[in-house]
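Here is one chain, start to finish.
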Amino acid sequence: MWRYPLLLSSALRAQRGRRLFLDNLLTPVVMRGIAYRQFCTQSGSNIQTWLISQVVIDGLSNPTFVPDPTHRGKVSGLLDLANRALAGLSNGTASILDVNAVDAINTGFDECAMLVACPA
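Its structure:
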């Protein structure tokens, strides 16, 4: 069994990660010339910032890489991209490291962390 479906299960059950894509809660940022989308989660008084590569966000709407239209733009589409990467299939310009966004969502929402506005 692949690792990513198991890691992502808690985020999928809680549906918190799903909101990121559906509600456009990802803030565009550029770091060292690379485009990312940023989100923040809070557990207790601790706020953490997470990044997802823009190439992954772009891949989520591409029917070649996410053939099921009900998965496009959602965490389920991200899981599709991760499974393709693990199988050695093309994800366009998204590498397996880029698709590690699965881990950002899983870790970001661990311990029932809540989605919050990122600090300025």
